[in-house]
């Protein structure tokens, strides 16, 4: 049983970048006001040890307008912090990006996994946006996202006017999104999960009842094939929260079989890196009012 029909027909390309210098610019959000510099970077990048951040602070690589910050400095809302890295070594990613459909206004591409959508954390040049720019598609505007470890269809706007239209469709839940996942367990009937989601720590999220600050999330699951203790499931999200399908499948008792965070043996400490593809694919995007339809 496989959910990656399109992936299996492609040659898997591994993209590796040589080390390079980089200065990242980080604008502090209101929710991080009052945290110390050390607390902020440990929470933002939980996969790096405290000693790494103390080393970088001691060398003045984290600063504000050239003024070195120290571990105990308190951050301010909208403060602009710069973080210099003398030798960025990005993790390798899948590089077999391909264009599925395109017009003068929008572009639908196949994103392999693992591959982040945009710059962040350990990634800058090994991202979908950067690769598409190298392929001759500069200035694309994101209107929705896929997790780095999720493969499948993504739509981009090619101008401001189309971006506004597409974002409105997503925000008002008028986009018909379909995913397929391979889960542990035998799902014999359709399931609907209504469970709010919030960030737990770092890049790990959680769902449940009564969670302060959590956002509403609803997903429908339809079993398509059961075999050898696993089920191929069609997933239809009504909302678009981070890690929604992965969390809701776990909540329903059918975790994605190879998910390192929310799977059967998942590690939700926030320290484990999410750097391998999982059995979750964006397999359909339909915007009826705009006449857009793409199905894998």
Describe this structure in words.
With 296 residues, this protein is of the alpha+beta class. The chain has three domains: 95 residues, Pseudouridine synthase (2-Layer Sandwich); 69 residues, Structural Genomics Hypothetical 15.5 Kd Protein In mrcA-pckA Intergenic Region, Chain A (Roll); 108 residues, 2-Layer Sandwich (Pseudouridine synthase). It has six helices and 18 strands. The strands form four sheets. Strands 7, 8, 9, 10, 11, 12, 15, 16, 17 and 18 form a ten-stranded mixed beta sheet that branches. Strands 2-5-3-4 form a four-stranded antiparallel beta sheet, with no helix packed on it. A hairpin with a 2-residue loop joins strand 3 and strand 4.
Search tags:
four-stranded antiparallel sheet, ten-stranded mixed sheet, 296 residues, globular, disordered N terminus, 34% strand, alpha+beta, Structural Genomics Hypothetical 15.5 Kd Protein In mrcA-pckA Intergenic Region, Chain A
């Amino acid at each position: 049983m496989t959910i990656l029909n399109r992936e299996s027909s492609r040659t898997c390309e591994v993209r590796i970048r040589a080390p390079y210098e980089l200065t990242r610019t980080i604008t502090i959000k209101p929710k991080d006001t009052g945290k110390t510099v050390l607390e902020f970077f440990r929470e933002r990048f939980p996969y790096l040890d405290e000693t790494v951040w103390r080393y970088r602070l001691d060398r003045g690589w984290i600063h504000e307008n050239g003024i070195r910050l120290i571990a105990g400095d308190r951050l301010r809302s909208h403060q602009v912090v710069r973080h210099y890295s003398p030798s960025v070594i990005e993790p390798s990613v899948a590089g077999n990006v391909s264009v599925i459909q395109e017009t003068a206004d929008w572009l639908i591409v196949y994103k392999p996994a693992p591959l982040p959508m945009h710059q962040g954390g350990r990634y800058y040049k090994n991202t979908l946006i950067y690769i598409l720019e190298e392929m001759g598609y500069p200035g694309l505007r994101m209107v929705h996202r896929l997790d780095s470890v999720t493969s499948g269809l993504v739509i981009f706007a090619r101008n401001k006017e189309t971006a506004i239209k597409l974002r409105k469709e997503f925000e008002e839940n008028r986009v018909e999104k379909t995913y397929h996942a391979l889960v542990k367990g035998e799902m014999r009937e359709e399931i609907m999960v209504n469970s709010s989601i919030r960030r737990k720590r770092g890049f790990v999220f959680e769902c449940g009842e009564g969670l302060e600050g959590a956002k509403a999330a609803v997903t429908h699951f339809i079993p398509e094939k059961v075999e050898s203790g696993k089920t191929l499931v069609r997933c239809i999200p009504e909302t678009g929260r981070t890690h929604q399908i992965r969390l809701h499948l776990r909540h329903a008792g059918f975790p994605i079989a190879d998910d390192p965070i929310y799977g059967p043996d998942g590690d939700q400490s926030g320290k484990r890196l999410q750097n391998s593809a999982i059995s979750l694919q964006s397999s359909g995007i339909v915007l009826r009012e705009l006449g857009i339809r793409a199905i894998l």
